[in-house]
Write a structure and sequence with these properties.
mainly beta; 1 helix; 8 strands
Length: 152
Amino acid sequence: MAKNFTGENAINGAFGELTYKGEIIANIQTIEARITAERRPVRIAGTIRTAYKRVGVTGEGTFTVLRVSSEFMQTAIDLFDPLKPVLPANMTIKISDPDLGPSVGAEEEEITLENVKLWEIPFGFNVEDLISQTVQFTFEGAVLEQSITQPV
């Protein structure tokens, strides 16, 4: 816990961007990603206790993007094209809080999700609404590239 934590130090996640192959392709409105350990029960001999052994790890989630161009749709459609080679798709998620200044340290948190696969691309819109899309995805690894430091 930070020594001098105040309400102003809470990160509000004011900005998020989705980067693919080094290009920003979408403005993230919401994202939820989770890493889940798969486990198997192991009975402990001579007791009634059950322990668990990790046997795998999965990464999955959803994100919602606000459409500002057709670039995200084209990128997503390309991933489904059987005639185009599937390249490893890494996705960079960046959270930026403009209220945090240089005295706090890094102003951004950046996480790279590795080997991302999209499983469903929604189409459609409602007249008079901003167009957004919620997309399900899986990933095989995550790297914290940059972190927001605690207040001093």
